[in-house]
From TrEMBL, chain B:
GO terms for molecular function: electron transfer activity; heme binding; iron ion binding. It is found in: Periplasm. GO terms for cellular component: periplasmic space. Heme c 1 binds at C27, C30, H31, M69. This is C-type cytochrome. SUPFAM superfamilies: Cytochrome c. InterPro entries: Cyt_c-like_dom, Cyt_c-like_dom_sf, Cytochrome_c4-like, Cytochrome_c_Oxidase_Subunit. Pfam families: Cytochrom_C (PF00034). It comes from Methylobacterium soli. Keywords: Electron transport, Heme, Iron, Metal-binding, Periplasm, Signal, Transport. It comes from the Bacteria. Residues 10-92, 98-185 form the Cytochrome c domain.
Length: 419, 185
């Protein structure tokens, strides 16, 4: 009974009231920060409170850690545009998240709470899943370069040299960098080696909305031995996916917007870094390029921060992204970006839970964001959660789903496309 | 009423996991049949099956560190975890029996519950659902430990949301919350 009436209460009026209220009562001065002292971390905005009906109607997002057996995967629920087809590339990878291909075709898969790194081998179409590391501390990030696998745990990055030759007996990891905070909140990392042969490592804000310490809310880059560390971007709340634009070579990254402002704002962002070391992307003062923070925005101007090149929807949890560089898909996909949206929790009507395709205009700004792989949302519950995407050498697209512990492969066959 | 570990482990691990569900006598020896009488050991009554399964997964993989649960969960298969989850979920929820709670502390705790929106995830009555635990009626000292270790990141949830929430709690708030939630009728 209560469930029902609450659902109805989440109609426009309540949602609207919540937005207005959140906007109106939250302005609080930013606490003064004396030079040399650690930054003041203050509490979150006080609204909405639990007593607000819409908040009680929020269904919390929880999911099993165990993987869904192959024959129980909800494949018949998924939708793709005409001519595309989806098959299971690998299953049984509990909590499998970030994807990275090795030179010899091994797919490396990081995880968060399972603490494991998986390797999916692919020999003559026969695939096998191996656990190459376990008991790690949220090893979400996997990068591969010149035969070496790099794994990012919350506060440490290690390398596994010549990994593809030693999948059955992986070498002992060598720590290359551990000058990282230990916070769990937004502490898990996506990592990748850039065209400059440097390793890019983000450090999220240690909470929803706060003045971050100097060490957080940024992206660093470093040599592959962990030396020569620089901060390349600041004001980044939590990026869990990035890639380099093959045309411009610029770092392009998703960033997750803060919670609890309203159900419709702020959007998750797609950002481009043009001047490494000199750009601030707004968090926590300005969100989505034009929304001053209700708590910390006073006295700040959004014009002082780099605005996103595209907006990806509020609370969609835009995570992994890759430019489409293959030739298998129709020409319109060339140079655009596939983005995995993990799905919302801070929203009564859930969104996300899909892979979208973003097109860029000649000015580098996003011109459209269209659903690509959908069907993960059923009756306002997520039945799968896309985390990362990866283009394979034959031009197919792999997608990880950490709720089901599965990797899907999407391919295109013009013959089957509707005329 | 501390149970010798070796004995408890032996009790738990004898007997195969039957189709009818595993025997949880070994578990309840420590945890009580729903309500724990032992300091440091949480009550499991009324916990959602998915929460129990997820925690056992994390114990097995060493992602949540706590003796003796790591060694107990180690030999379990995914199916075992799910079977224990389902069996534990049948235990009756704890209900507070002691003297009336201090109204002032309860009022302070209720304010903190509203401010930090605990009920948006734990449910209006803090009874939990799916992967979110029941906290109402849980042992007070265990609640203090849980909230404190989330705050320091020593304990990581299967989802880091609790670390975010607890990061915003002061030690006084934690004390009041634990006091009132443990006594919540």
């Amino acid at each position: 009974m209560r469930q029902n009436s609450l659902k109805q209460a989440c109609s426009m009026t309540t949602a609207l009231a919540l937005i207005l209220m959140a906007g109106a009562v939250c302005a609080k001065p930013v606490p003064a920060q004396k030079p040399g002292e650690p930054p003041v971390v203050t509490n979150n905005v006080d609204r909405p409170e639990t007593s607000d009906e819409a908040v009680l109607a929020l269904k919390s997002m929880t999911m099993p850690i165990t993987a869904t057996p192959l024959d129980k995967l909800p494949l018949d629920k998924f939708h793709l545009p005409d001519g595309f087809k989806l098959e299971v590339y690998a299953s049984g990878l509990a909590n499998g998240r970030s994807l990275q291909l090795g030179d010899k075709g091994t797919l490396f898969v990081g995880s968060r709470i399972a603490g494991r790194v998986y390797a999916v081998t692919n020999q003559d179409g026969k695939r096998a899943v191996k656990i190459i590391a376990k008991g790690l501390h949220r090893p979400n990030g996997v990068a591969f370069h010149d035969g070496t696998l790099y794994v990012a745990e919350i506060s440490k990055i290690s390398k596994y040299p010549d990994i593809e030759a030693h999948l059955d007996q992986p070498p002992a990891p060598v720590t290359i960098y551990d000058d990282l905070p230990k916070d769990e909140a937004h502490g898990w990392k996506f990592i990748k080696v850039g065209p400059d042969n440097k390793l890019y490592v983000p450090i999220g804000a240690p909470g929803n909305n706060l003045i971050p310490p100097e060490t957080h809310a940024q992206i660093r880059r470093m040599d592959l031995d962990g030396k020569n560390v620089e901060i390349v971007a600041r004001g980044v709340r939590n990026t869990v996916g990035f890639d380099w634009n093959p045309a411009t070579k610029l770092l392009t990254f998703t960033d997750n917007g803060r919670d609890w402002v309203s159900e419709e704002l702020p959007n998750d962002e797609l950002n481009v870094l043009t001047k490494p070391g000199q750009e601030h992307f707004g968090y926590p003062f300005c969100h989505q390029g034009n929304l001053p923070d209700p708590e910390y925005g006073w006295g700040k101007s959004c014009a002082d921060y780099t605005a996103p090149v595209g907006l990806l929807g509020a609370h969609t949890a835009a995570l992994g992204m890759r430019f489409y560089t293959g030739t298998q898909f129709p020409a319109q996909y060339q140079g655009g970006i596939f983005i995995a949206q993990h799905g919302s929790w801070n929203k009564t009507q859930k969104t996300g839970g899909q892979v979208v395709f973003a097109k860029l205009g000649s000015d580098g700004k996003v011109t459209s964001v269209e659903p690509f792989l959908t069907g993960f949302l059923e009756n306002n519950e997520l039945i799968g959660r896309p985390v990362d995407v990866q283009v394979t050498p034959d031009g197919a697209l792999l997608v990880s789903d950490d709720l089901n512990g599965a990797i899907y492969r999407i391919s295109y066959d013009a013959k089957h496309a509707a005329k | 009423m501390r149970i010798p570990l070796a004995l408890a482990v032996a009790t738990v691990l004898t007997g195969p996991v039957l189709a009818a569900g595993p025997s949880i006598e070994g578990c309840t020896a420590c945890h009580g049949a729903g309500t724990s009488q032992t300091e440091g050991i949480p009550s499991l009554g009324g916990m959602p099956a998915l929460y129990v399964t997820n925690q056992l997964f994390m114990f097995r993989e060493g992602q949540r560190k706590a003796d003796p649960m790591n060694s107990l969960a180690e030999p379990m298969s995914d199916e075992d975890l799910q079977a224990y989850g389902a069996a534990i979920a049948t235990l009756p929820a704890p209900t507070y029996q002691g003297p009336a709670a201090d109204a002032e502390r309860v009022a302070r705790a209720n304010a903190a519950i509203a401010k930090h929106r605990c009920a948006s995830c734990h449910g209006a009555q803090l009874g939990g659902d799916k992967g979110v635990p029941r906290i109402r009626g849980q042992r007070e000292e265990y609640l203090v430990t849980a909230l404190t270790t989330y705050k320091t990141s020593e304990r990581a949830g299967f989802d880091p949301q609790m670390n975010e929430v607890a990061g915003e709690l002061s030690p006084n708030e934690i004390a009041d919350l634990a006091y009132a939630i443990a006594r919540k009728p």
